[in-house]
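Quick one, tokens below:
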């Protein structure tokens, strides 16, 4: 487990929270250091996905951890939040999300510098909202192909964890909104917005949960 320290200049008059992770302080124009936990080890997606049977259907879940549960706030007690995916099939379960490369300069990540990407195991990761759908074998093949070779660049404004979740969801037939944040420090898609969009949206042939929980551990081995 690796702690990433991101520094933001907050300029929202309604931003008001105090948490040990923030180092204290609140209000318009204040500066805070935000802890972001890069949970779980880096994974090789091809090895993670090799146990899935591409000729069969599976279950896809998009998990959303909001910065502040039940709101569109960019930051909160859970820092900026996180979005990750889960795939289940015949006792095989995998949970992972999209991150900047290990060792990336976290201050530069926060202001939108490009970095190489990596996937990390998100077993037991906190989430507040999830949406699940059965996917066909054809859809599963598309999902596995995409996650085996995900976009090579992580940029907090143009392609980050929320974008990864939205893209994988679309491949599985879940058409998730891609609402952009309205902050001068950040112009990308945020877990807070996605969480509220899923809470309030109608997505055919899916199952939603809106209660705080933790993802299962990955399970199953094909060897």
């Amino acid at each position: 487990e690796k702690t990433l320290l991101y520094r933001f200049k907050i300029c929202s008059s309604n931003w008001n929270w105090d948490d040990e992770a923030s180092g204290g302080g609140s209000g318009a124009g204040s500066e805070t250091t935000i802890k972001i936990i890069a949970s779980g080890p880096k994974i090789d997606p091809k090895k993670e996905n090799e146990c899935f049977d591409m000729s069969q259907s599976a279950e896809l879940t998009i998990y959303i951890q909001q910065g502040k549960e039940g709101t569109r706030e960019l930051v909160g007690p859970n820092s900026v939040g996180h979005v990750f995916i889960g795939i289940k099939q015949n006792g095989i379960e995998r949970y992972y999300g999209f991150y900047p490369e290990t060792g990336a300069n976290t201050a530069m990540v926060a202001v939108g510098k490009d970095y190489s990407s990596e996937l990390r195991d998100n077993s037991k990761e906190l989430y507040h909202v999830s949406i699940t759908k059965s996917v066909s074998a054809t859809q599963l093949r598309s999902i596995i192909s995409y996650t085996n070779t995900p976009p090579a660049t992580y940029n907090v404004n143009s392609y980050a964890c929320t974008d990864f979740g939205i893209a994988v969801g679309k491949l599985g037939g879940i058409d998730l909104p891609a609402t952009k944040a309205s902050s001068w420090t950040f112009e990308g898609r945020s877990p807070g917005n996605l969480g509220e969009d899923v809470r309030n949206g109608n997505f055919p042939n899916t199952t939603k949960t809106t209660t705080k929980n933790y993802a299962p551990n990955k399970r199953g081995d094909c060897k």
